[in-house]
Amino acid sequence: MIWSRRRWLGAAGAAPLAACSGLGNDSTPPQTSESSTVKLPRIHRVSTPDNVRAHLVQDRGAPIVSLAVSVPAGSRHEPHGQAGLASVSAHMLREGLSGGSRAQAIVRYADHGASPVAYATPELAVLQCTVHRDDAPAVLKLMVANMREASMSDTAFEDVRREHVQQLRDAASEPIQAAGTGLLLAVHGVEPPSGLLPLGTVPSLRSLGAEDVRAWHEQRIQGARLRVSIAGDVSASEATDWVASAAQDWTPPANTATERDDSASPPTDGRGPQAITIPWPRSPQAILAVAGVPEPVDYYEAQVHALATNVVRGLLTSDLRHRLRATYAVRSASWFTKRGPMTYLATKVDPEDIGRAAQRAKTLLMLQQQDIARLDDYLAVVRRAEGTLLMDRFHGSEQALSALLTLAEYDLPADYPERLLETVQGIRPKDVADVLQHAYHPDRVRFCIVGDDETLEHARSVLGCEDKLCTPAALVGADRAPDVTPSEADSDAEKSPG
Amino acid sequence: MDVAPTPSCGRARLVPWLMLVLAVLVPQLAGAKPATERYTLDNGLDVVLQPDRRLPLVAVNLTYHVGAMDDGEHPGLAHLVEHLMFRGSGELEDGELRRRLGEIGALRTNASTYADRTSYHSLVPTDQLRLVLWLEASRMKGIGPALTQAKVHQEVRTTVDEWEDRIESDVGTTAFMRLWEALFPAGHPYRHADRDQIRQLQLTHVRGFFHEYYGPANATLVLVGDLPSDVRELVEHYFGRRTGGRPPTRPRVAIAPPTGPMLAHPAEPGSPPAVLVGWPTPGLYEAGDAEADILALVLQNKLSAYLDENEPGVFIGASATQISRTGQSAFVVTARARPNGRPVVIIDLVDRALEQVLAGITEGDVRRAKRFATLRLLRSQQRLDGRAERIQQDIAAGKHEHWIDNDVVDHEAVDRSSVQQFAATYLTTDRRAVVQLVATEASR
Q: Which range of residues forms the domain containing residue B185?
């Protein structure tokens, strides 16, 4: 290379500049800080009337505010045999208010640029949306009125129930979701397993009547203590005013039955088979899914389980990539069920590799029981990353609202981010190893395989454990319910374009 | 390619005075514009710095202005190069970049290949920004011996698997791809690569592509967040000595009518029948693009409601969207029917519903859709990484880093007559593509 005079002068000038600034040579990586600055959000408990609890997180990233109103009317409070009732009732909140139609309600919200969503979690019934900060007081008022005065017409109920049945069918026709539902059956032994999820089952939805939903709304929603969660471009004093104005007509709780009731959902009462096989003819890929058996733990202890699951995920990804040259990532997904959260791992593999993949997973789970040395390094990285992860949970008003709803879901204190950080920083390798030994012990871990007959046969021979064959329809109970109710059939006959 | 006429709403003439009026009338804009600095290094690297002190985090987004539309004779090449940039380049070993970013607590580390750009992005602690800049600058140095033909084969397999995973395994996505192919026929720059084309790709193609386009003179670095006071020195230090890169030569993309007759596509047993209708529409930020956005939002609210009211029990739901691309966009309406619906009738019902809804659009519908559109823009600005991404999108489209303000103005200028004019001009039955998801026996 010929160096010009300009180049020499440039280099001569650049060297001392780099030295003075401490930037060093650009071909070696700069030193990294041992730890990164963490700035956790302050969650304000807003002063409110007796009948309401409200929390606020400020985020001034954009002039918007995310709002949620919720009550403890989630799926784990449903009466036996009425799985899906909480979710149908929550969705009814979008079907009109004050006796008006769904279309009218859409317009009332849309006048403020809002488009709310409603849903049920295991603990809560939630109505939420994001709006410009100038619209927030009016929209919050509308949302509270919506909780109190949902229209609950028979026609709307039929529509919502039909949508639920369709969503269940859609979920059962997506292989990864079907695998997760299959694992619910393996872990809890409940049939149909989708009954542990807010959507319920096809038969339980068919058995619901509009009067059940109206009664649920009256008892569990109208009569409950309201929770308001606000995140975004708003001060504590403004939020206090908004909540006081919006909730002034909210009736105080009628009885304590609508308060948090931790006995409402019994712990796991049984275990299913160790493996579930789901036939999926003509599928181009097979699916291997794995779940540890969850222990009853509180929110903070669950972090150790999450880390243990992540360890298994990392090991499985690396192992399958190197030994099977699999290219699909091992995904982690969580179900929030009536029996608590369940996280599962799932990966797609070529159908001919399913036997080897299952074998690798089994071998790996046995090997990792003896090898906790590497956990030290892993936990060091986790401790470093946890601060960033926590900050990210409150980054942006919509994300921050989700974090506030976690607080409501688990009834956590306002300083839960600090406690969470403390918990994760304090986790020792032995804690994770203990969970691995219990939840992911090869004798207790659960498998679900999705694929064609040959694939399933392959996997069975390798796993060598008790398994249960379950069709996608059976996961949601669609195999035991008529395809349509009589009223729907009549409607179809009248309106069918065919 | 023929160019369809544009709506004669005269929006371009309205913009200057509207900017003044809206500064007063649209409070959404007030206070939302952060201080932004933009400059160019001697080697051509375009740099945008936007401080935001909310959190000790920085969104790092390095975008090369080359994307899938520049694949040329090797469809799938831009996406493959994106994958391989994590497999060893510059001084970095295979997987080193991800490992190091993971160790410092970086989040959302990923890359995306668009039609006109390829973006590498992550959200990192401010204290670790130096390392992240070093990593990106090292990656820009070039493809070294660490990248082998074997790794290319592995990533070819990964991208093919991705294709099968995301597209082939879902009947709805497959149907959408058929519609896309009808709207963007073979040879069109927005046509997606298929599996067989991806399998043809070799290391030499990757090296050539990288050598041509991956360099500072064809890149924009956007940093948004808690920037250190010496950020300019850091950028100069780590990127100042990189060289190379040039913008690709691109064909001009203009609106062309779709090809082929109505296409039928079998649904999976159990999945409901559906129709997808697509029209070629004006490109991103061109006259008519904002009208299309607003119309999609109006239809989003009104189409399902109309179908529920007038065809009860037939439809599960309907949606509409404008997918904006430079030069030519696509306006897509999707309607899912209940299992007993017959597609040939569904399309008739959708046509009737569209006609009725379009004729009945009110000023109130448009006003509400505009509010929602503005809110959607603001929502994209709440996170640091969202802002960085939006800036890159606008720069790639040839606009300035504050173009979001103009976008708000464009949407505010839409009114009922311009929306209806847009629909009359572009959403006609003679220039559309239709894909039907036909119910199989088991799904009835």
A: 34-239
